[in-house]
């Protein structure tokens, strides 16, 4: 790099950054790059605000500066250096800088017209580039002080006066403003001009006797020559003071201020003065005063016996301290009423936030008038409301917060018991429950009873397979046996599981009166009223579809308990069904769901609106407060707030949670009972009528052939009528409406995939496998391979490897082709879409997942259509297996049934 000589020309390369700042690179006449340091020394040699370029930024050897720094520097350029552009564009930039600097330095700024509406206006002859640059200069002044555009006129007036001055000789002092605290507790503040000696740091202000005189008379003799400069500077300062201060412009500034005027000065004027390079001297303590405020403690207690009950009223004990010293409540009230913002305590001054104190007082009054109870601590955001009076966001992280909310020990225990679900009293299992509850099921039952007794709705969100059904049945039996239930209870479930509910009620509570309100023959109007009256405190079981058809009758009644199974069915809160369900009235509302609703926020809102109407507010408010911040911004803070709100009313256990010590078997096998649709039932009866006569007349080999053909045809009909009728597939929604089995398979599979798990689906029929693929792909965008006997070995091996590596979540397999010889331990769910009369074949298929290498609980579901050959074969297998396992495993028994057994097998119902 060559040494730089003066009286020479420097060519500049200029570029504008997206943020409005400028980059300069300098070159000597020979074209050599001169580097950022010498270029800064020349460009900013007289720029005092940047200490002659010392504070100007370097960037990759270039110089980076803002519009204000550039305009000020080009207004007082180096006398021995001439700048030219390296290109026409650069030359245009230099011309623009010089024009803007000339306008900015003109006495009185005649070509800057003002700022109507907060936007800079200039004379017509000013070029567009210079006008934009000057606008950026004033924007930077405002931004440096964090000041709004509404103060732009003040800045222009200040600059207009400043530019009108003819520089005098350098001043032997610097002028500043000084803010002084009151001498007496109830006195006024003083904002006054002061002259600071740069050598000694001492401050000079006029004596009281001379405070009303102009600077030419009040200044010391040695400083009188500078009286004009002092007077003009004070006049400029007065132009930007926003308060309505009446003061003689010819005298030194001396303004008495009240507390609220001090706050306005600190908020509005101080940043602007500093941005305009006017020194403001504040009391040292004032900079720390924002950290010192009145601290408030509210201690809540309930009940006189020491054992808090949920209906007990809360009583509050308030205490206040300032700087570690207690202050009486009467003085606190006086501070609030007088709206004082700065007070003295001992030898120290403190700043108070009047608005914050007013919120504290309002909250104290609300607490006294509202009659808050222990229950309100859970059902409302009382702690959040109380905590909201904390003055700043970072108070949450302080060890000594400004507001402290404490709970009496017994009250804290009561609230904590509900939130943690620990210490809930154990309830004896009902005598008429035909089941032995597992330990975690007993806890769930205890919790449901506890929530009912204290008037809280409940969401039981255990994983599928953990027994939500038996826990709810136990709860309903307890209410009936203990005499708490005075009217019928209502359970609403999807149509695809109503058969399961009938079977589970028969199994676990055979003595419990049940009215199944479903189907075209269901009771209506007076018939329903009579049936309910005779039902007493029994149970009504219905489906979401049926409820929607009869919702006017059902919502008009007062139920003992209302329970929703698969409660996510009301997730679309705007649908008629969801709105109608949420209007149901019961003494206890219970929602059952196996899906992790805390991750599905719209679904969560609808379910909580059912168990406690309005608990999470209107949906629009919930969306703004929680859904947006959590789903769009990933706000962990809002997620934690939401978890805290819902946790008292939500019980969720997962099979994979080691803390539960569930001691579940390695494999759970259960039947999924589904009903026939009306279309399936009509086709079933018609086919039986057509073929049963020929069956009863046939003998030997022909008889066995007819039986096998009927079994196959009827099982395909149980799967879907389109398979029985050999129809092409239609729209997925239409296909689901024709088969509750298909609908249930879709629901379960989607839930399993949502949890990040994998599933095997076995079927005997190619058509059923393709139908499942068709619906999964179009409804859930899940592409599920289908392994059949015609698949080449290479393709088959690749699919197995990919599935084991987590490449896809759903694998559909032909029972014959995929039932043996495969290792598919990546799956921990197995669905048998249709039943085989040889259980050994089903077990072999299940063992594709349940085998060596499987380290997770395996859940197996076998779909059984109620009232059909599927249910009857299942019952026969269970009965005959106890007599002759070998016979059942061979599969030969099915063709050797007697005529009476065949009549029962093929009869619908």
Automatic annotation (TrEMBL):
GO terms for molecular function: ATP binding; DNA translocase activity; helicase activity; hydrolase activity. InterPro entries: DUF3670, Helicase_ATP-bd, Helicase_C-like, P-loop_NTPase, SNF2-like_sf, SNF2/RAD54-like_C, SNF2_N, SNF2_RAD54_helicase_repair. Keywords: ATP-binding, Helicase, Hydrolase, Nucleotide-binding. Residues 449-614 form the Helicase ATP-binding domain. SUPFAM superfamilies: P-loop containing nucleoside triphosphate hydrolases. Residues 741-906 form the Helicase C-terminal domain. Signal peptide: none annotated. This is Superfamily II DNA or RNA helicase, SNF2 family. It comes from Bhargavaea ginsengi. The lineage of its organism: Bacteria, Bacillati, Bacillota, Bacilli, Bacillales.
């Amino acid at each position: 790099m060559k040494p730089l000589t003066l009286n020479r020309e420097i060519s500049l390369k200029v570029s504008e950054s997206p943020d409005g700042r400028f980059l300069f690179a300098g070159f000597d006449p020979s074209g050599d790059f001169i580097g950022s340091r010498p270029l800064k020394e020349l460009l900013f040699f007289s720029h005092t605000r940047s200490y002659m370029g010392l504070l100007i930024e370097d960037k990759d050897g270039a110089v980076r500066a803002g519009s204000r720094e550039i305009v000020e520097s080009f207004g007082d350029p180096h006398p021995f250096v001439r700048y030219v552009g390296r290109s026409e564009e650069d030359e245009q930039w230099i011309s623009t800088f010089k024009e803007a600097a000339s306008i900015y330095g003109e006495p009185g700024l005649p070509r800057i017209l003002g700022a109507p509406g907060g936007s800079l206006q200039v004379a017509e002859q000013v070029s567009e580039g210079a006008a934009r640059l000057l606008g950026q200069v004033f924007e930077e002044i405002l931004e440096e002080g964090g000041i709004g555009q509404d103060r732009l006129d003040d800045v222009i007036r200040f600059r207009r006066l400043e530019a009108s001055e003819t520089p005098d000789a350098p001043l032997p002092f610097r002028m500043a403003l000084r803010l002084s605290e009151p001498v007496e507790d109830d006195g006024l503040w003083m904002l006054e001009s002061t002259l600071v000696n740069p050598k000694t740091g001492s401050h000079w202000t006029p004596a009281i006797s001379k405070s009303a005189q102009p600077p030419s008379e009040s200044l010391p003799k040695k400083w009188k020559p500078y009286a004009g400069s002092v007077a003009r500077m004070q006049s400029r300062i007065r132009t930007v003071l926003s308060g309505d201060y009446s003061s003689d412009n010819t005298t030194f500034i001396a303004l008495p201020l009240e507390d609220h005027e001090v706050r306005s000065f600190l908020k509005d004027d101080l940043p602007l003065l500093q941005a305009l390079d006017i020194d403001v001297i504040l009391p040292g303590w004032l900079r720390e005063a924002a950290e010192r405020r009145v601290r408030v403690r509210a201690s809540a207690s309930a009940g006189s016996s020491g054992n808090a009950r949920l209906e007990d009223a809360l009583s509050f004990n308030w205490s206040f301290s300032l700087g570690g010293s207690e202050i009486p409540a009467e003085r606190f009230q006086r501070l609030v009423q007088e709206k004082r913002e700065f007070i003295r305590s001992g030898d120290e001054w403190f700043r108070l936030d009047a608005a914050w104190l007013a919120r504290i007082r309002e909250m104290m009054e609300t607490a006294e008038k509202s009659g808050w109870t222990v229950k309100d601590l859970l059902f409302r955001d009382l702690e959040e409301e109380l905590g909201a009076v904390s003055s700043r966001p970072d108070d949450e992280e302080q060890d000594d917060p400004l507001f402290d909310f404490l709970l009496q020990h017994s009250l804290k225990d009561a609230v904590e018991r509900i939130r943690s679900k620990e210490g809930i009293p154990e309830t004896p299992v009902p005598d008429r429950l035909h089941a032995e509850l597992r330990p975690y099921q007993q806890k769930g039952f205890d919790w449901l009873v506890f929530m009912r007794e204290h008037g809280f709705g409940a969401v039981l969100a255990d994983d599928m397979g953990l027994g939500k059904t038996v826990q709810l049945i136990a709860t309903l039996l307890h209410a009936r046996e203990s005499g708490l239930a005075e009217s019928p209870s209502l359970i609403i479930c999807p149509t695809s599981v109503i058969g399961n509910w009938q079977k589970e009620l028969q199994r676990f509570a055979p003595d419990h009166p049940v009215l199944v309100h479903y189907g075209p023959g269901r009771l209506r109007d007076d018939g329903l009223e009579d049936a309910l009256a005779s039902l007493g405190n029994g149970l009504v079981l219905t489906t979401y579809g049926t409820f929607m058809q009869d919702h006017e009758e059902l919502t008009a009644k007062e139920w003992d308990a209302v329970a929703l199974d698969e409660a996510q069915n009301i997730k679309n809160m705007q649908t008629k069904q969801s709105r109608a369900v949420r209007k149901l009235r019961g003494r206890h509302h219970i929602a059952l769901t196996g899906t992790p609703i805390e991750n599905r926020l719209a679904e969560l809102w609808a379910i909580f609106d059912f168990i406690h109407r309005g608990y999470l507010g209107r949906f629009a408010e919930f969306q703004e407060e929680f859904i947006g911040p959590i789903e769009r911004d990933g706000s962990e803070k809002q997620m934690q707030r939401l978890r805290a709100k819902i946790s008292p009313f939500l019980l969720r256990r997962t099979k994979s949670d080691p803390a539960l010590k569930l001691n579940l078997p390695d494999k759970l096998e259960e039947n999924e009972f589904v009903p026939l649709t009306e279309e399936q039932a009509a086709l079933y009866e018609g086919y039986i009528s057509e073929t049963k006569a020929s069956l009863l007349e046939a003998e030997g080999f022909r008889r066995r052939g007819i039986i096998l053909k009927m079994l196959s045809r009827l099982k395909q009909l149980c799967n879907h009528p389109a398979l029985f009728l050999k129809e092409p597939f239609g729209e997925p929604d239409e296909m689901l409406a024709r088969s509750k089995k298909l609908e249930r398979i879709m629901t379960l599979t989607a839930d399993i995939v949502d949890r990040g798990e994998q599933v095997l689906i076995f079927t005997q029929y190619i058509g059923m496998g393709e139908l499942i693929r068709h619906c999964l792909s179009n409804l859930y965008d899940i592409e599920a391979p289908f392994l059949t006997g015609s698949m080449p070995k290479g393709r088959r091996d690749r699919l197995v490897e990919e599935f084991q590596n987590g490449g896809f979540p759903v694998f559909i397999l032909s029972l014959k082709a995929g039932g043996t010889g495969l290792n598919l331990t990546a799956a921990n769910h197995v669905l048998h879409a249709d039943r085989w009369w040889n259980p050994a074949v089903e077990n072999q298929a299940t063992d594709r997942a349940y085998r060596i290498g499987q380290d997770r609980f395996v859940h197996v579901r076998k779909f059984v259509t109620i009232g059909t050959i599927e249910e009857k074969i299942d019952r026969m297998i269970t009965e005959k297996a106890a007599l002759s396992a070998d016979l059942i495993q061979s599969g030969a028994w099915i063709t050797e049934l007697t005529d009476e057994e065949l009549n029962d097998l093929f009869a619908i119902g």
